[in-house]
Amino acid sequence: MSIDWNFIVTSLPLYEKAAWLTLKLAFAGILLSLVIGLLCSIILYFKVKVIDIVVQAYIELSRNTPLLVQIFFLYFGLPKLGLKMSEGTCAIIGLAFLGGSYMAEAFRSGLEAVGKSQIESGISIGLSRIQLVRYVIIPQAFSVSMPSLSANCIFLLKETSILGAISIIDVTNLTKDLIGMYYRTFESLAMLVVVYLIMILPLSFILSWLERKVRYAEFGN
Amino acid sequence: MQNLGIDVIFQGKNFQRLFEGLLVTAEIAFISIIIGSILGIIIGLSRTTKSKAILFINRIYLEAFRIIPTLVWLFIFYFGVTTALNINLSGEIVSIIVFSLWGAAEMGDIVRGALQSLPKHQIESGKALGLNYFQLYWYVLIPQAIRRMIPGTINLATRMIKTTSLVVLIGVIDVVKIGQQIIETSRFEFPTASFGVYGFIFFLYFIICYPLSQISKNLENKWNK
Known about the structure:
The structure holds two protein chains of two kinds. Chain A is mostly helical.
């Protein structure tokens, strides 16, 4: 099998464009899901009446169904109720719907890990509510949730691979198109894998660096 | 309130067809979980050795499946491997291969985690009693490790069931594909079918995965205490 370098060079700009689109969608999805997750976990932590049942139902629904089906429902199902959205919006909402519950679980496990004695000691040395949250709860909760938060970020970036199903030209969909058009299977797939490595490896390094920063209490630096 | 297109599911043989599609999905998931678990146990056991080469190969294998999305693996096998070896594989076979390999990688990690979480004195006491390696694993370590593996394994199974929805993208006629066919054929009689059908498939996945994830959560809570 000979490698067609010419094909690789000519399709490089296409991959670059698709990779930026993938990253943009993933970034928006991750950001939104962090916000949703934080809100949900706070609602669950403080046991806000009625709303916490809704949040719990949302978490179970989103965690126990595949993203592909969620996105099909958003993109093909909802317009029948008069709610029409563009592919990009659907993709971001789908990622946020899925990611929100994973992030909520990650935040919640962190919040629950803060010992009762920590909060009581905080109160007894006269910290105000805001100080308690700022200096006692958040640093400890965050350091516990960080590993799952970063795993979720990578998970969401990988999940963008299925967005081609609603005709978004992300890197995976582009590869499928190129294979169909030019039949340069080997080159296209190799480029796809390389593009994913280029996107995910740095993210994974940044996240583990961040993890060491946040968890200084455990690592001691 | 206009028609939500839910009644299309009960038209003619539609319900039965969706159910048959679900069986295809379930079959792929089930076979892959079985093969993946068997391979995964072997991989997990091999990861408790001290041989650097075996550990390195295992690490690469696991990371490859963790970094590259499952859909890409499906494409690699469906388009790449078939072209390279000049063979023809159906979508189902490709899905089973990919899901088994992925399951084996993740399962290997679960088995390794369970074995390494056992207290060291278990191994030492076993050795002190004069058990050989086979006896040590078979009578002491594996029975204790299995208990710690079960929640993670059920969790992996729900992840695999959810991920089997991707097989529609490599042309397997699964529940999603049949849903699409129903939407297409009833386009004129039931213009809102896509809401009802996709909503129904969403619900189907939920009623399969929800009990499993509850079981795994309960076991984890029970055994962690």
